[in-house]
Amino acid sequence: MNGLLSIYKREFTSYFVTPVAYVFIVIFLFMTGVFTFYLGAFYESNQADLEPFFRFHPWLYLFLIPAISMRLWSDERKSGTIELLMTLPVSITDTVVAKYLAAWSFTAIALSLTFPMWITVNYLGNPDNTVVLASYIGSLIMAGGFLAIGSCISALTKSQVISFVISVVICFMFILSGFPMVLDLFESWAPQAVVDAVASFSFLTHFTSIKKGVIDIRDLIYFAALITFWLYVNIIIIENKKAD
Amino acid sequence: MSEAIKIKSLTKSFGSIHAVRNVSFNVSHGEVLGFLGPNGAGKSTTMKMITGFLEPTSGTVEVNGHDVLENPLSVKRSIGYLPEGAPAYGEMTVKNFLNFIADIRQLNGAIRKKRLDEVIETINIGTVIDQSIETLSKGFKRRVGLAQAILHDPNTLILDEPTDGLDPNQKHEVRNLIKKMSKEKAIIISTHILEEVDAVCTRAIIISSGELLFDGTPEQLIAKSEKNDIDHAFRNITISNPTKS
Fold this sequence. Notes:
Number of strands of chain A: 0
Strand content of chain B: 25-35%
Helix content of chain B: 25-40%
Shape of chain A: globular
Strand content of chain A: under 5%
Oligomer: heterodimer
Radius of gyration of chain A: 19 Å
Distance between the termini of chain A: 30 Å
Structural class of chain A: mainly alpha
């Protein structure tokens, strides 16, 4: 088995030997339920779609994804296992990617366990299932974006708490940049191109179109570029600061 | 005897602190090199540079013909390394941990099974094989670290305080193990226990404040003391050269 795969396997199974995975999945499912039915007014809207369900995903991810990513590298630094990991014959790129993919796969499992929601909406009405599927894919890709940020930040510190807080703040900025209150700040003085650029950095801007069932190549490129960028920085951080 | 490790004017500084200064030595296959020195002398830092965990500020490290900066993966493949404190993934069982190492070291099929069985047998960790590592005693943790280092039967071993935290019987076992492996391997061990040098090492190196102060056989080291006492010789060498930083 090659290095990337070995580390992926170890990382992925490590979620399930501690209570972390189960606590996370239960809370994720509980919160999606609360948001969909209470805040999202799933029944009251009388529409057979999962928009009230997906609408809150960015906000859930804002807190839950940094909770997954905070341990990715901070824990290795704290426990000293980073020295073991970095002296095994695997390249840093493979290690960073393997850890990231393991965390992403775990998120995918949590997300797929919301399938009763999909069954429910099909039981109650006739939703457009391709839209639902596109939304699921979009939600997973967005989670990947949050995770890449979290993984990179986690590489910077020994402390999981610091890693968590900074990741939440940065993810929050990536959500907020699409909000009118932020855009208004720019609109008054900046040219439209700048306003559009700021808006285009927002997870929400890109997720909104995906949520409607439109998977636009530009949105995919956005998330792919975002993930690549943060993982690249992650690799550079580990390469230069293995031992501190 | 072929050269396994060649270290040439190795230097490492952290800001204004010089952890290792201009250290050069070679280790051949068949040699057990005891790495001695007071705490903070630069022993671990040197070992971390040999294994590619730290990058030297200047100087070169060559392991089995591969430069550690140019070809880190080849170096890492040919080395077994027990880092200081024997770090391991606490939530894993000993068995899963060793299987993970076997995966990464690309041990497959019959060889994999043979090596796992052999190592578990020689290191004597069969009784705790299904326990998670965080529940183990210090001695067992150290032995798991040792098992991890020798699993792929590397011809070069770097062991940072391999007997630290072991009881006298376990120390004896580990020393025997090192002696047994020493015939065809190049081994560097760091230690604070001076009688260990006499017991297992064919050569000793003393560094203090990052500088190499002595390089010779244990007999030559003992001869440095008029009392024929290795502890006395160690003090003579490390204290007569006061720390400068």
